[in-house]
C-alpha cells in the first residue's frame, strides 16, 4: 500500500511543513532508527505542536502510520510495529519552556533530554525526582509515554503524581492540553493521566510541566542482606511499619546484584573460560534503602539498621548508577535475555519474585530481579543459560509462569526479548483495566489508528 | 420534560419501596448542595448495590432521563445538582468499607463512605486516608473521587487522585467495568487517574480502591505571626524555594484572623497583619530539622514564631483555620468564596491585587488560603439583599480569577468546575483543548444523561439536548461553605 | 440562604408568634458539615432527616413553598434535639432555637390526631406541670411495677402484641421516696464551708432518680457546700420547649426563677444535663414574650448562676475521695452537656478524681437516642440509634458505663439489658459518691 510514489509525494508535503532540512528519507540514516526490525521511509522532525498536527493530518490522509520517537532508549518495549512509514522524531520539540524555581515548577518540550532538564534544575539545587538510565538520550516525552518507573518513585511518587500539565496532538491532528503550570488544579479533565503510559498511542506528546523537588542535601544508602527471600520480605514489612521514610526502598535478588554492583575484574560467570577466576556467586537477597536528611536523621537510620552496610559519596553514587544500568547490563551481556516489568500489590512481591525464580529454572534459565520493594514495581530478567539457543516457547512459558504467580490485578509486560519470540506470545499480558473502554478512548483520539500502530496492548 | 410515574415504579422495583423519593416536598431537599446553585430533581433513589446502580442507569438510559450521582452534597461548584432534572442517585446507603487490606495498605470502599470514617476505621492499624478536605467529617469518598478533592494536607501528600489505585465503575450504558486495582499501576491507559476529578460526567464509581498511609511518628504545628500580609506572603515564597516540605502551610490575613480569633479564640494575635499556620510531619528527627529550618526562614520577617506545645494547643490553632469560613459566616451571612490557584512566587503580587480589587469594588475581601500550593480562597462579603452589591461581588470574583489565569494559574484548585465555573473554563482552555476533552466525554457519556451540563460551557455541552436547561448566568455564585 | 429557584415569594406559612426568623436560619450556608453528626441522618440517610435539611424546610415554609403538613411535621418531630449539629457547625447556626420555634409553629398551625393531642396535653400540661399530679401518677406506676399485674402483663405478651414492650423497658423504675419530700430542706456543708448551692430536683428526677438526687446532695456536702432545695421549684420546662409548647415552658421558667430568687446562693445546680441546658436558655425563651420584660433582668441573674453539677464541682475543684475506686469505665457524653453546654472535660475530671480509669469509646458524644421523650415517641428509630451507640460501648469491654444525665441513663440501661452486657450504668455523681 505504501508505494514509493506515495512516500515521495508525502515527503514533499512534509517538507513543506517542517522545511527541507528537518526531514530525511536516506536509507542509510533511517536504518539507524530501526524499531524492532521495522524501518520507516521518512523521518520528520517537527518543531511545534502545529507542525506535529499538520504532519499527522497528512499521514492520516494518506493512510500511513507513524512511529513516535524520543531518545530511542525504550523502543524495545512492546510489539514490533505493524507498520510505520513515517518516523516522527520529537527532538526539535523544545518550544515549551518555563522554569519558576521559587514555585518549584518546570515545563519543557517533549524533545528535551532528561540530562538537559536536570542541568537547568541543578542550578537551583532542584531535580526531577526520577533516577533513570541513559539520561543523555532519554527525553521527557519518552519518559511520559512509557511511564518509566525508577527507585526514587518510592519517596517522591511517580510521574502521575508530579506531572501537572501536558501538551499533545491527537492522531487526527488536534492540538490539545490538559492541566496547567500550577501544582494544584482541577479545571477540566485530567489528560496527564491519560497520556502517561499510553506509549504514544493516543497522541504525540509535545511538552509537559512538572512539580520539581529540592535535591536532598545529604543522603546515605543502606544495604541489608538476608539469606532468603522470606527474611528480606519480613525485614521490608518491619520497615514499612516503622517511622522510617526512605526515598528509595529496593529489593535486589542475589543474581541481580551481579549486574548492579560496580564492574569487577572477575569474568562473567556464564562465559566459559575455566582458567579465569569466577566471582563468587552471591546468594543473599538485599534490601537497599536511601535516607535523606540531616545528620540526626541519618543517625536514626544507622541506629535502626545497625546490621546494614552503609554507602555514601561515590560508592553510593556508583551503586545507584549500577542499579539504573541493570537493564542495560543484562541486555549487553545476554542478547537472549527477557526482561519483564511487574506491577503487584506489596503483599504479592514475595510470591512474584519466588514465582519468577521458579519459572526461570523451569525454562532452563537464570533469574535476576529487582525493584521497588514496597510499591511492587519490579524488573525481572529471565536469562537463558548459554548451553543451547533458547526457543520461542521458553519465553512464552516463562512469561506465563511468572504471570500465573501474580494476583488477578497484578500485571507483567515484556520490556525486552528477542523479536522472533514476540510473535509467539502476548508481550503485554493482562491488565485489570477494562479493555473495551480503553479501545473506545483510543478510537476517540486516534480514529485512523495511525499512532504506533500494533505496538501497544490494544 | 415528562417524568412518568412508571419510572418511579420501576425505581422502587429495583431499589426497594423505601429507597425512592418522589414527593415534591422531599425532592425540594435535593435541589441544593454546599454551593448556591439550585435545581429540582424528579426522583431521588438510594441504591444499596452496584447491581442496582447498573439497573437504574440502564433504566434512565432507556427512558432518556438524566442521572446525577450525589454523595453528601457538600460540594461547592454544583456538582451534585440535577441541573436538567432527572434522577439523583444518593449514595448514603452504599456506605460500607468493603475491605481493609493492611498488608497492602489499601482499602476498598463504597462511594458513600464518609472520608473521616475511613481514617477512623483504619487508625487501629496505624494507617489513615490522606486527602482531608475541610468537609471531611461529612463528605464522601465517592464525592472526593468525583471532584478530586484536596485539603490542607494535600501540600505534602497530593490530592485524591494520588490516593486512588482502582475503581469499579458503572458506565452510562449500564455496564460495570473495572479500572486498575490494588497495584500502584497497571499497563494500559490510566483510566483510574483520568476518571478521578471527572465530576460524575464519565461514570459512577461504585467501589473505590484507595491507598492508606502510615500515621506520622511526629507532628509539629507552628504559628508564624507577621506585621504585614506582604511579609507573610514573602515568607511563603521563601519557604517554598528553600525546599521546606511542610505537610500544610496556610495563610490568614489580618482581617480574617481577627474575625476568627473573636469567634474561636484560637490564639491568633489580634494586632497582627497575617499569620501562617505551618504543620510538619514525619520522622521525629526530620520534623525537628524542618522545624528549625522553618523557624529560621520565618524569623527573617516574622514578629514571632510559636510552636504548639501540646495536642490541645495544636487543635486550637487548627480550629481557627478549619472554622474560619464559619467564623466569617457569623458576621456576614453571605460570602462568596473563590478557589483560584497561582504560582507560589506570585503570592505577594496577588494579595496586593486582591486588595486593589476590594477597594475598586468597595467590598470587604478576607484572605485565607492553602498558601503552600498557591490555592487562594478569597472570601468576598456581601449582603444578598442588595442586588448592586451582589453584582459588584460577582465582578470582583471574576477579576480575581482572571488575574490568576494571567499569572499562569487556574480557576479552580479543589472545588471543581461543575455548574459554577463552566462558563469560564474557556479562559483556560482553547476550543481545540475543549473539543478533545469533549470527545473523551462522549466516549463514556455520549447521550449526556450522566450529570449533564457540568464542566463544559452551556453552548458546548450536548447541543441537541440542552433546550430544557436552566439559564446559566455566567459565573454563578457560591456562597459560604468550608474549604 | 436567600437564593432559591422559585422567584415569587409566597406568603409565609408561619405565624408571627415564636417564629423562626430569617435572621436565625439565614446563617446556615448549607455546607453539610452537620450531616454525619446527626443521628437521624446516620440512620435514615436522607436530607429531610438532617439538620441542614430541616433548616431548609423551615426556610421553605417561611417562603410559603412548603406547607406545615404531615411531611414537615414528621421530619421536624424526628429531630432528637441532641444539638450535635451545633457543635459541628462552623457558622454558629442556632439550630436548637430554630427547631424549637418550628415546633412552636407546628403547635399553632397543625392539628395532630386526637389521641396524640390528648396524650401530649396530659403529659406536658398535666403531669409535668403539676408536681402533685406527678406524684400521684408516679405512686400508681410504682404500685404497678411492683405488682402481680406487671408480671402478669409481661408474661402474657400483651405488651409485645401492642408493640409496647420496648416502651415498658424504658420506663423509669419509680423511686421508693420522692425528692419533693425534701423541698425546703437545707443540707449543711461538711468540712470547711466553700459556698452554698441550690439544687433543682427535676420532675422525672424527683420521682425516678431520688437516690441520685440524694447522692448529689451528699457529694456537694462532702465538698464543703451547703445545699438547699427551694420550695416551689418545678419542672425546668425543657421537654415543653423541645415539643414546641413554649408558653407552658415560659410559665415553668417564670415559676423556677421566682422559686430560686428567694434564696441567695452561689449556683443553681442540676444533675440532669437536659435541665441545665434548658435553664441556661431561659433568657432566649422569655425574650419571645412581651409580658416578660420585667422578668428579663431576673432571668439573666438566674441564668448566670445555672451550672451542671459536674461543671460546678470541676470549677471548684473536688476534694480527694476517701476510697478511690480502682475501676475502668467509659463515659457517654450527654448531648445536652457536650453539645448544648459544651461541657466535656468536667465529668471526666470528676471520674478521674474518683480513681476511675477512663476508656474512651468511639464517638462518645454521639446521641444514645434517649432525647427526652424521644425514645418513647420514636421507639424504632431511637432503638436503631441506640444500637449504633451500644456497638461503640461494647467495643470498650469495660463493666461500667457512666453518663451525666438521667434520660441517657434510662436509655443506656435498656441498651445494656437488650444486649445482655455485664455492665452497670451510673451517673458521674453516683460514682463520685461511692468514692467518698
From TrEMBL, chain A:
UniProt domain FAD-binding PCMH-type: residue ranges: 35-215
Protein name according to UniProt: FAD-binding oxidoreductase
Cofactor(s) named in the record: FAD
What does the UniProt keyword field contain? FAD, Flavoprotein, Oxidoreductase
Gene Ontology MF, one:
FAD binding
Automatic annotation (TrEMBL), chain B:
**Name of a matching Pfam family:** FAD_binding_4
User: Which Gene3D superfamilies does this entry report, sorted A to Z?
Assistant: 3.30.465.10, 3.30.70.2740, Vanillyl-alcohol Oxidase, Chain A, domain 4
Record protein name field: FAD-binding protein
Q: Output the Gene Ontology terms for molecular function.
A: FAD binding; oxidoreductase activity
Which cofactor(s) does the record list? Answer: FAD
Q: Cite the PANTHER family for this sequence.
A: GLYCOLATE OXIDASE SUBUNIT GLCD
Q: Which InterPro entries match?
A: FAD-bd_oxidored_4_C, FAD-bd_PCMH, FAD-bd_PCMH-like_sf, FAD-bd_PCMH_sub2, FAD-linked_Oxase-like_C, FAD-linked_OxidoTrans_Type4, Oxid_FAD_bind_N, Vanillyl_alc_oxidase_C-sub2
Q: Which UniProt key words apply to this protein?
A: FAD, Flavoprotein, Oxidoreductase
| Upper lineage | Bacteria, Pseudomonadati, Acidobacteriota, Terriglobia, Terriglobales
Determine the domain of life of the protein's source.
Bacteria
Residue ranges of every copy of the FAD-binding PCMH-type domain listed in the record: 37-215
* Organism for this UniProt entry: Candidatus Korobacter versatilis
Automatic annotation (TrEMBL), chain C:
Instruction: Kindly state which reaction or reactions the protein catalyses.
Output: glycolate + A = glyoxylate + AH2; (R)-lactate + A = pyruvate + AH2
User: Which is an annotated GO molecular function term of this record?
Assistant: 4 iron, 4 sulfur cluster binding
Please report the stretch or stretches of sequence annotated as the 4Fe-4S ferredoxin-type domain: 18-49, 69-101
**Top-rank EC class of the record's enzyme:** oxidoreductase
Q: Which cofactor does it need?
A: [4Fe-4S] cluster
Enzyme Commission number: 1.1.99.14
- Tell me which domain of life the UniProt entry assigns to the organism this sequence originates from: Bacteria
Identify the stretch annotated as signal peptide in this record. Answer: none
Keyword Repeat included in the entry's annotation: yes
Q: How is the cofactor bound?
A: Binds 2 [4Fe-4S] clusters.
Provide this UniProt record's keywords sorted from A to Z: 4Fe-4S, Electron transport, Iron, Iron-sulfur, Metal-binding, Repeat, Transport
Segments crossing the lipid bilayer:
none
Q: Which PANTHER family match?
A: GLYCOLATE OXIDASE IRON-SULFUR SUBUNIT
Function description:
Component of a complex that catalyzes the oxidation of glycolate to glyoxylate.
**Name listed for the protein in its UniProt record:** Glycolate oxidase iron-sulfur subunit
Tell me which species this is from.
Candidatus Korobacter versatilis
**High-level lineage:** Bacteria, Pseudomonadati, Acidobacteriota, Terriglobia, Terriglobales
Amino acid at each position: 500500500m505504501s508505494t514509493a510514489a506515495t512516500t515521495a509525494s508525502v515527503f514533499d508535503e512534509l517538507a513543506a511543513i517542517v522545511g527541507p532540512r528537518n526531514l530525511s528519507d536516506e536509507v542509510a540514516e533511517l536504518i539507524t532508527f530501526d524499531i524492532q526490525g521495522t524501518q520507516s521511509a521518512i523521518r520528520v522532525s517537527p518543531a511545534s505542536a502545529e507542525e506535529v498536527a499538520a504532519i499527522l493530518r497528512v499521514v492520516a490522509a494518506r493512510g500511513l502510520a507513524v512511529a513516535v520517537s524520543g531518545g530511542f532508549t525504550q523502543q524495545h518495549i512492546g510489539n514490533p510495529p505493524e507498520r510505520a512509514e513515517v518516523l516522527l522524531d520529537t527532538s526539535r520539540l523544545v518550544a515549551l519552556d518555563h522554569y519558576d524555581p521559587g514555585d518549584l515548577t518546570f515545563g519543557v518540550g517533549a524533545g528535551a533530554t532528561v540530562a538537559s532538564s536536570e542541568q537547568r534544575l541543578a542550578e537551583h539545587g532542584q531535580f526531577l525526582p526520577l533516577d533513570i538510565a541513559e539520561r543523555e538520550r532519554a527525553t521527557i516525552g519518552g519518559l511520559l509515554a512509557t511511564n518509566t518507573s525508577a527507585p526514587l518513585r518510592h519517596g517522591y511518587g511517580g510521574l502521575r503524581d508530579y506531572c501537572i500539565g501536558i501538551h499533545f496532538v491527537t492522531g487526527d491532528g488536534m492540538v490539545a492540553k490538559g492541566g496547567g503550570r500550577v501544582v494544584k488544579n482541577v479545571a477540566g479533565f485530567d489528560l496527564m493521566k491519560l497520556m502517561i503510559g499510553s506509549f504514544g498511542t493516543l497522541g504525540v506528546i509535545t511538552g509537559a510541566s512538572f512539580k520539581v523537588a529540592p535535591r536532598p542535601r545529604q543522603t546515605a544508602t543502606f544495604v541489608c542482606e538476608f539469606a532468603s527471600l522470606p527474611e528480606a520480605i519480613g525485614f521490608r514489612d518491619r520497615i514499612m511499619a516503622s517511622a522510617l521514610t526512605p526515598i528509595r526502598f529496593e529489593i535486589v535478588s542475589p543474581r541481580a546484584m551481579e549486574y548492579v554492583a560496580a564492574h569487577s575484574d572477575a569474568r562473567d560467570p556464564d562465559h566459559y573460560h575455566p582458567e579465569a577466576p569466577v566471582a563468587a556467586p552471591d546468594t543473599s537477597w538485599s534490601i537497599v534503602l536511601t535516607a535523606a536528611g540531616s545528620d540526626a536523621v541519618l543517625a536514626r537510620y544507622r541506629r535502626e539498621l545497625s546490621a546494614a552496610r552503609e554507602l555514601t559519596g561515590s560508592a553510593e553514587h556508583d551503586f545507584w548508577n549500577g542499579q539504573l544500568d541493570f537493564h542495560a547490563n543484562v541486555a549487553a551481556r545476554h542478547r537472549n535475555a527477557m526482561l519483564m516489568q511487574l506491577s503487584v500489590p506489596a503483599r504479592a512481591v514475595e510470591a512474584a519474585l519466588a514465582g519468577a525464580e521458579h519459572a526461570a529454572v523451569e525454562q532452563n534459565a537464570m533469574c535476576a530481579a529487582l525493584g521497588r520493594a514496597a510499591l511492587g514495581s519490579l524488573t525481572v530478567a529471565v536469562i537463558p543459560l548459554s548451553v543451547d539457543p533458547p526457543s520461542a516457547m521458553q519465553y512464552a512459558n516463562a512469561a506465563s509462569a511468572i504471570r500465573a504467580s501474580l494476583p488477578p490485578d497484578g500485571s507483567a509486560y515484556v520490556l525486552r526479548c528477542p523479536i522472533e519470540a514476540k510473535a509467539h506470545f502476548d508481550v503485554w499480558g493482562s491488565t485489570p483495566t477494562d479493555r473495551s473502554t480503553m479501545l473506545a478512548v483510543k478510537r476517540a483520539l486516534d480514529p485512523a489508528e495511525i499512532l504506533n500502530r500494533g505496538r501497544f496492548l490494544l | 420534560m415528562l417524568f412518568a410515574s412508571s419510572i418511579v415504579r420501576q425505581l422502587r422495583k429495583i431499589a426497594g419501596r423505601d429507597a425512592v423519593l418522589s414527593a415534591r416536598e422531599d425532592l425540594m431537599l435535593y435541589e441544593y448542595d454546599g454551593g448556591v446553585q439550585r435545581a429540582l430533581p424528579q426522583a431521588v433513589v438510594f441504591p444499596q448495590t452496584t447491581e442496582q446502580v447498573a439497573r437504574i442507569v440502564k433504566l434512565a438510559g432507556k427512558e432518556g432521563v438524566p442521572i446525577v450521582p450525589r454523595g453528601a452534597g457538600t460540594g461547592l461548584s454544583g456538582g451534585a445538582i440535577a441541573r436538567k432534572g432527572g434522577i439523583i442517585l444518593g449514595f448514603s446507603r452504599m456506605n460500607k468499607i468493603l475491605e481493609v487490606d493492611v498488608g497492602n495498605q489499601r482499602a476498598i470502599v463504597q462511594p458513600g463512605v464518609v472520608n473521616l470514617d475511613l481514617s477512623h476505621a483504619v487508625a487501629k492499624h496505624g494507617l489513615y486516608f490522606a486527602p482531608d478536605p475541610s468537609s471531611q467529617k461529612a463528605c464522601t469518598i465517592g464525592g472526593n473521587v468525583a471532584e478530586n478533592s484536596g485539603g490542607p494536607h494535600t501540600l505534602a501528600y497530593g490530592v485524591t487522585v494520588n490516593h486512588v489505585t482502582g475503581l469499579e465503575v458503572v458506565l452510562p450504558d449500564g455496564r460495570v467495568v473495572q479500572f486498575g486495582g490494588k497495584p500502584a499501576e497497571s499497563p494500559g491507559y490510566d483510566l483510574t487517574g483520568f476518571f478521578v476529578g471527572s465530576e460524575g460526567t464519565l461514570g459512577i464509581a461504585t467501589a473505590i480502591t484507595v491507598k492508606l498511609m502510615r500515621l506520622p511518628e511526629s507532628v509539629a504545628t507552628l504559628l508564624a505571626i507577621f506585621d504585614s500580609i506582604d511579609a507573610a506572603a514573602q515568607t511563603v515564597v521563601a519557604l517554598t524555594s528553600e525546599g521546606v516540605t511542610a505537610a500544610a502551610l496556610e495563610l490568614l490575613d489580618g482581617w480574617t484572623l481577627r474575625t476568627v480569633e473573636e469567634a474561636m479564640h484560637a490564639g491568633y494575635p489580634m494586632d497582627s497583619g497575617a499569620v501562617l499556620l505551618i504543620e510538619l510531619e514525619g520522622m521525629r528527627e526530620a520534623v525537628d530539622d524542618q522545624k528549625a529550618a522553618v523557624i529560621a526562614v520565618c524569623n527573617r520577617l516574622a514578629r514571632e514564631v510559636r510552636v504548639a506545645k501540646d495536642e490541645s494547643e495544636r487543635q486550637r490553632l487548627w480550629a481557627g483555620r478549619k472554622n474560619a469560613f464559619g467564623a466569617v459566616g457569623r458576621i456576614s451571612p453571605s460570602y462568596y468564596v473563590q478557589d483560584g490557584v497561582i504560582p507560589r512566587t506570585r503570592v505577594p503580587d496577588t494579595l496586593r491585587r486582591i486588595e486593589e480589587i476590594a477597594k475598586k469594588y468597595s467590598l470587604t475581601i478576607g484572605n485565607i488560603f492553602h498558601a503552600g500550593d498557591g490555592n487562594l480562597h478569597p472570601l468576598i462579603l456581601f449582603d444578598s439583599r442588595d442586588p448592586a452589591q451582589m453584582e459588584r461581588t460577582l465582578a470582583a470574583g471574576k477579576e480575581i480569577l482572571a488575574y490568576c489565569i494571567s499569572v499562569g494559574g487556574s480557576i479552580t484548585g479543589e472545588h471543581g468546575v461543575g455548574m459554577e465555573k463552566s462558563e469560564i473554563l474557556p479562559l483556560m482552555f482553547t476550543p481545540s483543548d475543549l473539543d478533545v476533552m469533549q470527545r473523551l466525554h462522549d466516549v463514556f457519556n455520549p447521550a449526556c444523561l450522566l450529570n449533564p451540563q457540568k464542566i463544559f460551557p452551556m453552548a458546548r455541552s450536548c447541543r441537541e439536548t440542552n433546550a430544557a436547561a436552566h439559564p446559566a448566568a455566567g459565573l454563578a455564585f457560591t456562597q459560604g461553605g468550608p474549604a | 440562604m436567600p437564593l432559591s429557584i422559585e422567584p415569587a415569594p409566597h406568603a409565609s406559612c408561619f405565624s408571627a408568634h415564636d417564629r423562626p426568623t430569617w435572621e436565625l436560619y439565614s446563617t446556615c450556608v448549607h455546607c453539610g458539615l452537620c450531616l454525619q453528626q446527626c443521628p437521624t441522618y446516620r440512620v435514615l440517610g436522607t436530607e429531610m432527616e438532617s439538620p441542614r435539611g430541616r433548616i431548609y424546610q423551615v426556610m421553605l415554609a417561611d417562603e410559603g413553598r412548603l406547607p406545615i403538613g404531615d411531611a414537615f411535621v414528621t421530619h421536624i418531630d424526628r429531630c432528637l434535639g441532641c444539638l450535635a449539629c451545633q457543635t459541628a457547625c462552623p457558622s454558629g447556626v442556632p439550630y436548637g432555637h430554630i427547631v424549637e420555634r418550628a415546633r412552636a409553629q407546628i403547635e399553632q398551625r397543625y392539628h395532630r390526631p386526637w389521641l396524640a393531642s390528648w396524650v401530649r396535653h396530659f403529659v406536658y400540661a398535666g403531669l409535668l406541670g403539676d408536681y402533685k399530679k406527678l406524684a400521684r401518677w408516679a405512686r400508681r406506676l410504682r404500685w404497678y411495677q411492683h405488682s402481680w399485674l406487671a408480671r402478669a402483663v409481661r408474661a402474657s405478651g400483651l405488651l409485645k402484641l401492642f408493640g409496647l414492650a420496648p416502651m415498658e423497658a424504658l420506663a423509669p423504675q419509680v423511686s421508693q421516696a420522692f425528692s419533693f419530700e425534701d423541698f425546703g430542706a437545707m443540707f449543711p456543708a461538711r468540712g470547711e464551708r466553700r459556698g452554698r448551692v441550690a439544687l433543682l430536683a427535676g420532675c422525672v428526677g424527683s420521682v425516678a432518680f431520688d437516690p441520685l438526687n440524694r447522692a448529689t446532695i451528699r457529694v456537694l456536702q462532702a465538698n464543703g457546700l451547703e445545699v438547699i432545695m427551694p420550695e416551689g421549684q418545678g419542672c425546668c420546662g425543657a421537654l415543653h420547649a423541645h415539643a414546641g409548647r413554649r408558653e407552658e415552658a415560659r410559665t415553668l421558667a417564670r415559676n423556677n426563677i421566682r422559686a430560686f430568687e428567694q434564696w441567695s446562693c452561689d449556683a443553681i445546680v442540676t444533675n440532669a444535663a437536659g435541665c441545665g441546658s434548658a435553664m441556661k436558655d431561659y433568657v432566649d425563651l422569655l425574650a419571645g414574650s412581651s409580658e416578660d420584660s420585667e422578668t428579663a433582668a431576673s432571668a439573666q441573674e438566674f441564668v448566670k448562676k445555672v451550672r451542671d453539677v459536674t461543671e460546678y464541682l470541676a470549677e471548684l475543684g473536688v476534694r480527694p475521695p476517701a476510697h478511690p475506686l480502682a475501676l475502668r469505665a467509659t463515659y457517654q457524653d450527654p448531648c445536652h452537656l457536650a453539645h448544648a453546654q459544651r461541657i466535656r472535660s468536667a465529668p471526666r475530671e470528676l471520674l478521674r478524681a474518683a480513681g476511675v480509669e477512663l476508656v474512651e469509646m468511639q464517638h462518645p458524644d454521639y446521641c444514645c437516642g434517649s432525647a427526652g421523650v424521644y425514645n418513647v415517641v420514636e421507639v424504632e428509630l431511637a432503638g436503631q440509634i441506640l444500637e449504633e451507640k451500644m456497638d461503640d460501648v461494647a467495643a470498650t469491654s469495660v463493666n461500667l458505663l457512666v453518663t451525666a444525665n438521667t434520660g441517657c441513663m434510662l436509655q443506656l440501661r435498656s441498651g445494656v439489658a437488650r444486649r445482655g452486657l455485664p455492665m452497670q450504668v451510673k451517673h458521674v455523681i453516683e460514682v463520685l459518691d461511692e468514692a467518698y
